[in-house]
């Protein structure tokens, strides 16, 4: 039973240990922040969604990348389109809220919202993300 409990608690204990280490040493805990990618139909929709994300303080920064070609399967058919991609920098703990909010305002039936944890980066920039996105 003790072994089972230790195995079940390992992720939580590891997370706490990493946070304590980070607080004591000032080092970055990999995965504390994430970058979300959100596909948009056009530049106006991308700007509207980016501004809405920023107004809700769900991100420290949103880049709006230029138009790109996209191929995807939709309802069994190969679709070819153009899209604008948003790169959203935020806390990993905000990804669920960000995803829910974007789905509520995005015109696509199934919007592309994918997040990737940030493993490493400029420590000052990562600190800046944390300072500009409120904790839960």
Fold and architecture overview:
The structure is a single chain. It is built from 4 helices and 5 strands. Helix content is 43%, strand content 29%. Strands 1, 2, 3, 4 and 5 form a 5-stranded antiparallel sheet that branches. The protein has 136 residues and is α+β, with helices and mostly antiparallel strands.
The helix-strand sequence is HEHEEEHEH
At the fold tier of CATH, the topology name of the largest domain is: Alpha-Beta Plaits
Structure summary, number of beta strands: 5
Using the CA coordinates, give the radius of gyration. 18 Å
Query: Structural class, from helix and strand content?
Result: alpha+beta
Question: Number of helical runs?
Answer: 4
Total domain modules: 2
Low-pLDDT stretches: none
The largest sheet, given as strand count, sense and whether it forms a barrel, is:
5 strands, antiparallel
N-to-C terminal Cα separation, in Å? 33 Å
What is the percent of helical residues?
40-55%
Q: What average pLDDT do the residues reach?
A: 90
- Report the β-strand fraction as a percent range: 25-35%
The CATH class of the largest domain is: Alpha Beta
CATH architecture of the largest domain: 2-Layer Sandwich
The shape is globular
List key phrases describing it.
136 residues; 2 domains; copper ion binding; N-reg_PII/ATP_PRibTrfase_C; Ion_tolerance_CutA; Alpha-Beta Plaits; five-stranded antiparallel β-sheet; signal
